[in-house]
Write a structure and sequence with these properties.
The chain is of the alpha+beta class. The chain contains two helices and four strands. It has one domain. The strands form two sheets. Strands 1-2 form a two-stranded parallel ribbon. Strands 3-4 form a two-stranded antiparallel sheet. It starts with a strand and ends in a 35-residue tail after the last helix. InterPro entries: Mo5U34_MeTrfas-like, SAM-dependent_MTases_sf.
Amino acid sequence: KAFDTVFSMGVLYHRRSPLEHLWQLKDQLVNEGELVLETLVIDGDENTVLVPGDRYAQMRNVYFIPSALALKNWLKKCGFVDIRIADVSVTTTEEQPPPEWMVTESLSDFLD
């Protein structure tokens, strides 16, 4: 328990055990520390979690994508309090534009 703030940016959906990842993050925080979590979410209720097949947006290592409400429940189960969702945005190519040197497919080829 060493940090006032811990960041997890774009990691949670790549973890085979997302709850274990959240517990590990919590264990790094001092009492009343804060977690800044950035992750993919889907629309749905507190029980909605997408479990992609072989690929998600051409990524092979995406295991679980919860709804924002399901994610809040996961955080509560791991002992987090005062949980706030700062923003829910649709992923766009403006967020991750393909570099000029890229000749293969990029994010824009896999978004609906």
